[in-house]
Write a structure and sequence with these properties.
Helices cover 77% and strands 0% of the residues. With 265 residues, it is an all-alpha fold. The protein has one domain.
Length: 265
Amino acid sequence: MRKRSFMSVSTALEIVMAGIVSSTPGQAGGVTGHATEWTQLLNNGELVALVGKSTEQINNQMTQIAQLAEQIQNQIRMYENMLQNTAQLPFHVWSQVENDLNRLRSLVAQGEGIAFSMSNADDVLRQRFQSYGEFKTGLADGQTFSSSYEEWSTTNRDTIAGTLKAAGLTAEQFSSEEATMSSLRSMSESSDGQMKALQVGHQIAAEQVGQVQKLRGLIAQQTTMMATWFQSDQADKDLAQLRRERFFNATQPGVRGGQAMEPRW
């Protein structure tokens, strides 16, 4: 009889997804630090099902991020048009700009957190299942999904840093909500500062739409590979189980013919 897990799949999923949806690499790392614990509590089938279910929710999250980034991009374009027709955006309008740009910063962090969590899932499965680690992923040059997510994150951060640098800003000024709001308050003091903030926000929003599409493609490829691996691995196990059952349930051949054993005096 199969031993049941002490933790239900839904409970474990809530724990893992709490880290994924919490959005930042640092926070996601806090949850994935307990990866050993929850993988020990789940049997192989439940672990794979958990990862599969997580990727479905992540895909929905990615769709929301892309849609919100496009909305913010359109909103910023409207602010730019307003600023061209006035000396400076009034306080109540600039407050909306600050809110939208801070939301954009949050979306960037969510994308980074998702990439970090999916990378961790690849590492966990690779450590847990030898067959997963040996499975052909279809990635070029022997790359793993973990390394591919790291490359995506590096490219994303470098692109944003380059956009900020071109406007005379630093990545640190947009690394947290507090730093972002402080920078935006300083830039709101002049029309040039406001326009610079809007142009940076517009470009980052546009870049994120493209980066999210790339990340979604990578997640879809990883999900397909995991499903293919699990089906192949399960097929091998089912075949082995069938052979064992046939061996142990085989009918003993009857003893017929030959000379009867009789006592000889």
